[in-house]
Task: structure prediction
Amino acid sequence: MSAPVTKTLVLEDIEIELLLEGLYRVHGFDFRDYSRASIKRRILELMRAEQIDTVSAFQARVLHDAACLDRFLLGLSVHATSMFRDPSFYSTFRRKVVPLLKTYPTVQIWIAGCSTGEEVYSLAILLQEERLYEKCRIYATDISQAVLRKARDGIFPLAAMREYTSNYHRAGGAHEFSDYYTASYDNVIFHSALRNNVVFSEHNLATDGSFNEFQVILCRNVMIYFNKDLQARVHNLLYDSLSMFGVFGLGNKESLKFTPRADFYQHLNDNDKLYRKVM
Amino acid sequence: MADEIVVVGTSRGGLKALQALLSGLETGFTLPMVIVQHRGKDLETGLCEYLSRSSNLPVAEPEDKEPILPGHVYLAPRDYHLLIEGASFALSTEPPVGFARPSIDVLFESAADGYGERTIGVILTGTNRDGAQGLATIKAHGGVTVVEDPATAAHREMPDAALARSTPDWVLPLHEIAIRLNKLGNALTV
Result:
């Protein structure tokens, strides 16, 4: 009885492989080593939104229609995150990382996979409050131009501010959070001064190389979308891009445990995924 | 890779229901069990430690790419979707599905995709419709499905929604679900 479903499933998996292979060979976007469970879910969801029934038909559209390709890339790179997500990560950053950064004349920071910029603005606010911002340069990168545009705009829904404000205070923020933005109808726009030292640019962790040496690299909840092979590649890339004793931050449910660089970092504290490169 | 997997979804009333379910599982229960309990995304509630106290099996929140082990209970961490990816877990911060993250549908559909007819899906008490679609997908892939009897569930909306979407193999009162799972576990591993 389950035979027809099984057959469709296998066919769908093959079609998805072909779509990802085509996308790579035609446009150089390499999703072939993305975690298959979530990318499959995304593709099927985007297909429904485009009202297309089969992955093969979707492939034709993505490869021939530039607007559809844009929507596809945007769909794969939008993640719903919050400012000061996991407040304890930021309070630990204040307590343990800020004193280290104060000893450097300049600080290069890479936020790899910045999506729509929530983390960029969170960090910029923190650095400003700690009087570090002026000597920092933040490189915020993502594969999608569309999400980078959003990040650069710094416009977020007003409805989210209640949660962000609560996160901000729990992360050790001592000011009025609303001092950092101006509300307008249903949105807020964050003050452009927070972007003065931020460079937003396109970078693909799956295919591009290192472009600088950094004292801090944050790559939170980005590699969860990659399979183990690609995770290993990116861990090596980030390790190579980090200066000795530089600080590396991961998402709260990510682990160095299953990666090739596990032994090259030291944990900054037990509960948060903040590490220091020691080898 | 474990041969079979049990996935469980619940929202309101789930804490008590999960305590009852976990305390009813035999010590020798050999299947992995993966649970989505809807909960607020802000506070660390200690839910995992709390459930551990009622469970004969180890309960943990998996990290990304953690291997799925038999005889372990896994709780979806707050504010992530939890997916099954072959023999390991994958996490995602994709937008909430039907206001829920973790979403029961996301877990159930990925389990059905990876484990097919070797998936056992369970819907317990709750006040929304999450899980109905995922349970139907498990059923369509030839898996085994169980719904808590709405008549005796703490909140019947979620079981009712599941029953409206597909016909499960069993509709059982809470205390009989652990018994059924023990039997299914034994039958499958013989």
